[in-house]
Design a protein that fits this description.
Length: 319
Amino acid sequence: MALWPRIRFFLFLQDNHGNNYSQKTLEYFGSAGPGMLTNRCFHQSCPRHKDSGISLCMLASGSKGNSIYVSDGRTAILVDAGLSGIEIERRLKSRNLRPESLDAIVVSHEHEDHIRGVGVLSRRYGLPVYISAKTAAASPRLKNLKKAIAFDCGASFKINTLNIHPFSISHDAADPAGFTIVLNQKKIGIATDLGIATAMVRHHLQSCDLLILEANHDPEMLINGPYPWHLKQRVNGRTGHLSNQDSRILLEEIQHHQLQHVILAHLSETNNTPEKALAEVCRAVNPLYTQLTVSSQDICSQLVLLNSSPSESLEVCNV
C-alpha cells in the first residue's frame, strides 16, 4: 500500500484572554495522495523563554487590521499598528506582552488597516514612528506624528539591537515597503500587500529563517465572488495583492533548508480560506524543515521564538 506524504499545518485558534489555547491542526496529504484536509484539536504549552533569539507574534492580519510584534528581549517593536490602540494593547496583554516595553513602531504604508493605532500608541507610550517621508505625507492621520523618524527604502537602519532593512514593493500606496529584520545571523522577512514579487522582493527574501508572506486570495473565488469588477482588477493587479498561487511560486524560488517557518498573511475573508491557502502553498514547502501556518484577522497568534543558536529549532510558546 502506498504511503502518502503528510504535512501538518497549524491554525491559530487560541483565545485572547491568556487562557490555554486550542490549536486546530489541518493535515494535508500530498498531491500524489487523497488530497484532502482533516481536522483535529489538541493543547500545547511550553515554558517562557530567555532572551536567546527573536520572538514574534502576529497580533492581526487581514483587511480589517494588521500588526506584528517583534522582539529580541532587549528591543520590542510593532511593524504596523492597524487596529485601534485599545485593541492592540488588549492583544499584547493576552500574550503577556507589555505595551510599555515597546520601543518603536515601523510603518509599511499609509492604508488604514496598517496605521489605525499608530498615532494613539505613539502618543500614549512616547514611541518613535519609523516611516518613509512619502508615506507620512500621504495620510492626514500620519502628518502630525510627534516622533517621526524617516527612512528610505533600500537604506538599512537600526532600532537599538534590531537591524531593519526596508525594500520597495509593488502596491497602490505612496511608498510601500517590505522589511527584513536581522539579529545574530537570524533573518525575518515580511512581505505583505504586494501585487507582484519583483526581482528586488525575491532578492531580499532570500536566506530568511522565518518568512511572513501574503497569500491574499484564491483566483477562482475572487473572479466568482461578490466584489465589483474594478475592485477585482485592483486586487489581482500589479499593485494589488498576491494570490495563493503567486505565493507558492515565490516560495518555490526562495525556499532553502534553513527556512524554519512560513506564516501566510493578509488572507481575504471573502476571497480565500485558510484551507485553500495552505493546500496551494504547501506544494512549495518541505515539511521536514519548514513549518507552514496561517495568521488570523480576529485572533492573535502564539508567540513564536526563533532561537539564535543554530543548534536549536524554532519553538512555539503558549504565554
